[in-house]
Structure formats: C-alpha cells, structure tokens
Amino acid sequence: MSTGPQIVYIGAPEADASTFEARIRAEIPDIQLFATNDRAEAMHHLADAHGLIAHHFQFDEEMLARAPRLRWIQSLTTGTDAILKLNRLRDDVTVTSTRGMHGPQMSELVFLLMLALLRNFPKMQRNQAAAIWERWPQPLLWGKTVVIVGVGAIANTELAEGAGLRCDNGIWVDEYCRTSDPAVYAAGDCTNHPSLRFGRRVRLESVDNAFEQSKAAALNMLGRPTAHDRVPWFWSDQFDNKMLIVGLTHDHDSQVVRGDPRSRSFSVCYLKGRELQAVEAINHSKDYMAARKLIADRAAMDLARLADSAVALKDAV
Which residue range forms the structural domain that includes residue 114? Predict the structure, then answer.
C-alpha cells in the first residue's frame, strides 16, 4: 500500500518549492505532495512517487532507480533529451516540459490543425475543463508520418503595455536593458533589444541570452553600466543528432558547406562578404566552438580554406 507522497517536487531559487506547494494546495488541498529545494532530501521520498517535477539536470539513473512506481516526469526546463537518454527510463513513463509548447503563445492555427488530426479535439477540451488527464490511442496517426511545425513564441507584453512601456515584437529595451521608462528594466525572451554586433534589433528565444541579458540588467540596476552584446547561440538534440547554432543568418549573402552532409557531421557557414555571420553545425562541435570567437571578433575568412573541411575552422582566416 502506498504511504509516501505520490508527487515529488524538487525546486530551485527561480522555482521555489514552498511557493509551488502553496499554490497547488490552494487548488488541491489533499494532494499527496512532497516539495523541497533539497535534492538529497527528495531522494528519500521517491519509493511511492508517481510523478517527479524538477529541472532536467536533476534527473539521473539513481533517481529513476529509487522511483519504481514512477509514471510521469515534468521537467521545469527545456532539455528533456538528457532525461530521455537515461537507461532506467521505462517506456511507460511520460516525460513533459513546462516550456515545450509555450501554451497559448503557439500559433493557434498550427496548434488547432495538429489537434484536428486527432479527431478528438472536443474530448480534449472537455478533459481540460474537468482537469482530467487521459491517454488514449490515436488511430488516425498510427503508422503515419507526422510533421511538427515549430513556430516559436509570441512575447507576452500585456503587463509592460499596461505600464505604458514601448512594445514592438517584445518589450523595447536599449543595450543596457532599459525600457522606455529608464527606471524599468527587462530581460529575456520577452525583450526586443539592439544587437551591436549585428547592427539590428532582435528578439531571441534562447536560454543563454536570457541568462546573460539578465546579468547585464542586474549590473546596470546596481549602477555598473554593462552593455548586453553577446553573440547568440542555440542548440537542439534531434534523436542522436546534435545541432549547434551560433550567430544570426539574417543578413548573409553567401554560404559555405564544410564537410559532407551524408556523413551526418558537417557545418554550414553564413557570410556577409568575407565576414562570418553564423554557423550551423550538425554533430560538429569543433566548428561551433571556433565560430563563437570568430563571429565575436568579426573575422574575415579565407574562402578557399573555409571550404576545405581538412582545415580547422579557427585556422580558415
């Protein structure tokens, strides 16, 4: 008979366990929940857990071994690929992410078209209204090829607009993270900020950008002027393929492929004249690491050496 908590929540400073527990108990008072910011403490309460909620980097083989009744993992961040690669992850455990779909920010048209494929959209709506989670087979999709369209997110600027701040594809900030009201700062995916490196305004959906811009905002609020001008980078694991992207391709006028795409290890370099603007690397981390410095330094590339994959990217200048 189950005696321990059925849901275990492992929090962090930005996702505090006590705050989560207060909110969830306000809606579900009798929930069997154990919430803590201490992972070591949580490890002693997993024997009866049906659900685990934590950041993706909290999960490892030992944690799954201690949770034999586990049915659901909710990651508080992106990066669920690391969880899916764990050997002890059973096929009957569902893995979800709080940032995987972006909820109402996803294009309603694309989202509804995807749901329409299921022919059970009304049932989904009824289940959502009744707070019921139910898995059922989808015969229309069985054995079919499904295309998922990643359309990004729409910045939620309602609070900023209500405060009278300038908004245009995000909250408008300068290189010091100041909004149109110099007493208010903003950082992260919601901001439209100038890229001094690329000479244009951008809104980036990137964990690294959110971290680095928030650091700059904090320093500026402390009276230590710091311009946010980091070269953006992104990554994605697609099954056993790792895609690494650095820079922005918007203004490129030529591109060079390094390596053979059929080898599943190659990179595509985007240039404006001879200046390297961006690199998209597939299973080729060396090109990605070299590109971060080259793009930041506005390096002018030797096009013949760049096209020769036998020459290290860092030496193709």
Answer: 102-154
